[in-house]
Amino acid sequence: MPISARDPLLEVTGLSAGYGKIGVLRGIDLSIGAGEAVALLGPNGAGKTTLLRAISGLLPRSGRVRFAGRDMSAAGPRETVSAGLVHVVEGHRVFTQLSVFDNLLLAGYGLPRAVRMRQAEEALAFFPEIAEKRGDLAATLSGGQQQMLAVAQGLVRRPRLLMLDEPSAGLSPVLVDRVLAAAAQLRQSGTAILLVEQLIEKALATADRVYALARGSIVLQARTDEADLPNRLEQAYFGQGARAPLQS
Prior knowledge:
The protein is built from 9 helices and 10 strands. By secondary structure, the protein is of the alpha/beta class.
């Protein structure tokens, strides 16, 4: 069983997914508690991005997905966002010909105007670096600033769970720390985090627990404060631990 004393917010059971006839994930079990930060680690090609896409409804999947007590197994992206599960996809996916603030307003599409304005302001407050550029086109932002804007877009809906797919990709170390600090601040405010990240030490410093994914299966789950975790991760990455999930 997953190692969490918190009430489950997200429960994934027996999830399988892929692209057309190409299977990528097989029988994934994963849970995240309310207000918990969880890191999802694994080598390139392990299926991390596929798992996030399947959970958020961007890919067809089999198995069971429950979020906040609701069965979301057949839900699409719009339903998952409405339920409070927001997925910030890999890369700087912003509307470059819109202003910074208009990007945030668009992320809140469907909300009452007053609510959308207020929550866009709240999201912007997490990133002073782009708040001062609120009227500028997103195309004029640096790559790091565009990544901040992408995360801020995810915050407009005040998610109960924010899934971040490699938010550090292409960023300088200073900007990586800034984005991950915002994630930690969100966690302190009660938002659960599922973080896919290649920078292992930084991911473990942000998270309460970790899952390791290899060849489409969960091969390890543990608390991040375990003294032997680096060795166990190495074993999982190189395949010694891939025969059966390792329990803490």
